[in-house]
Amino acid sequence: PLFFVVFLQGSQFLYSTYGFTLLSAVVERVSGQKFTDYMLKMFRDLDMLSTVLDDNEAMIYNRARCYVYNKKGRLANAPYVDNSYKWAGGGFLSSVGDLLKFGNALLYSYQAGQLKTTNGKLLPGYLKPDTVAMMWTPVPKTEVSWDRDGKYAMAWAVVEKKQQYGCCRQQRHYASHTGGAVGASSVLLILPEELGSEATDAGLVAPPRGVIVSIICNMQSVSLNSTALKIAREFDKEKRAQ
After folding, report:
1. CA 57 to CA 65: how far, in whole Å?
2. β-pairing, 75-77 with 67-69?
3. Which residues form the signal peptide (predicted)?
4. Who's near 156: CB < 8 A, 6+ residues apart?
């Protein structure tokens, strides 16, 4: 195989679908299972029963038709594509409900570690809190194209909490990722609620706490991150007002 160096390590960032294909090989080696078997078992654990392999030949209930704009700017059916060569990089079909379950599981795992007093009543998260925190730790010089405030972390774009001046622009901490395929676009955005020390110390709250937005569109090349962020902020504003 041939390998090409785009730029020096730690100097710039380039998203690669094939990077996820390489990761799937790592998962297979570590788990001793086929990547697809490993993932489908995980989806079942997460109760994501509508998330399946994007197999063209299989009959998949409620599978959506996908669309693109042709050279004349008119709506057309998306061309045939076989995603089996990149299961990890875009080879699964899912639903808005399943993506919300996925987001809730991550947010629960992330916030469970912030609660100091639960009296053993809180079930553990699917992932360790430190694992999610590591996944959501942005790497310098990895600005993402879909949000100028965001940097790339471990398969997530992350915006860190920041406010430089009083009564001015406030940056809320959130994690998101967009998805693009032939004839489809998507986004999953997780906006964690900022838990106060009084609530976390006394165990007065139970995770997940925050706003999760999932959008799936059967149209290619639709930018959805900014829309998802606006929706999340509106719901967050309503929760704060209550």
Report:
1. 14
2. antiparallel
3. none
4. 135, 136, 175, 176, 177
List pLDDT tens digits, range 36-93.
999 999 999 999 999 999 998 889 998 999 999 999 999 999 999 999 999 999 999 9
CA dihedral of residues 179, 228, 135, 15 (deg, nearest 10): 40
Q: Give, in order, the Cα–Cα distances in Å from 234 to each of 72, 108, 239, 241.
A: 37, 21, 9, 11
Residue 198 tokens read as 């009084």
Homologous superfamily (CATH) of 17-241 is DD-peptidase/beta-lactamase superfamily (3.40.710.10)
Q: In 3D, which of 84, 91, 126 has the Cα closest to residue 107?
A: 126
> pLDDT band for position 3 (50/70/90)?
low
| Domain chopping of the chain, boundaries | 17-241
Chain CA centroid to CA 212, Å:
10
Q: What is the pLDDT of residue 202?
A: 62
Residue 111 phi, psi (nearest 5): -85, -20
Residue 68: enclosing H or E segment and its boundaries? strand 67-69
Of 234, 226, 218, the residue nearest 189 (C-alpha): 226
From CA 219, how far away is CA 159, in angstroms rounded?
26
Cα within 13 Å of Cα(54), Cβ side: 22
